[in-house]
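Morning - magnesium ion inputs below, output right after.
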Amino acid sequence: MDKYGYRFSFGPWNIHEGADPFGPAVRPSRTFADKLTVYKELGFDLVQLHDDDAVPNLDELSPAQIRQTARTLKQTLADLGLSAEFVAPRLWEHPMTIDGAYTSNDPQARAYAIERSKKAADIAQELGTDLMVLWLAREGTYLRETKDAGRAAHQLLEAINTLLAYDANLRIAIEPKPNEPMDLAYIPTMGHALALGFQADDPKRVGVLMETAHSLLAGLDPADEISFAMAFGKLWSVHLNDQNGLKFDQDRSFGAINLRTAFNQVRVLDENRFWEVGVVGMDVKALRTQPADLATKHLRNSLSMFLRLVELSRSLDQAAVAALIAARDYEELDWLILSHLIGRAA
Ligand code: 3MF
Ligand code: MG
């Protein structure tokens, strides 16, 4: 925990080999165990996990074996002073999920997705976290005519209700994203995710995770997405990162591209006391050019940027801001904020 009470997390996928669609890995793989050793060094206390990060090859294991492996991991994490923030079912790599999971046209694929998600819930329970994150990767279409978006909404709702009934303590945070890997994703924004959650059988247990890059790809302001979810007590996690315009999902270090947007995300998180309700997750990737022994600096940079922006948010001259708002002198307010961000007097 930092001096402001925030706790930080990232996932093992955030230390990666640098492969992209046009080239292979450029850094050697680090084992999961090895990755776990860097968390504390970098100031992180919690680990975000896909179900198969926690329990490799879970499709080949019995429910009892899955639970046993998860229990062992819980101890491994505890020995390092770490705990799990959430478990996310990985519903986008298995052949059964090629054309969607909960919204696949194939009933067998839909059944696979539900069974797999139940296993993820078991893993979360064994790891001592009640939070499941649903990134709905392949729930969408490459071709609009292939699925019915209304039917898909009901299929997604049904899947969420099934999971809520399966585990009475489970909370589900939907992580919206408008595209990639699909051309058009269902549940592209916070608004879609919240609407779905409010329709669930137990709406209190459905919330959201806001990822900066995903909001930017949807053409939305990440700070407003945060505020909208927090207005209803629904923001349970974040994936802070950054994104340079409308292209592939870049997962750049937090604040590296849109510094003022980063400031505003931190400002609204801090004003709404996010440290009391959730963990600050970073979903960032090192640049492909980064040498292997220096390939955790994106995590360090993102966490340090968050803390520096908390400092800037709290040291903003609130009386001056209020006076400029009252005078409707927004140009002067613009200058005040920019000067504050670059550390100069207005
Ligand atoms: C994709 C993502 C994912 C999710 C992760 C946990 C691999 O754009 O952001 O990262 O964050 O699956 O939900
Ligand atoms: Mg993410």
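Note: The chain has 13 helices and ten strands.

O.
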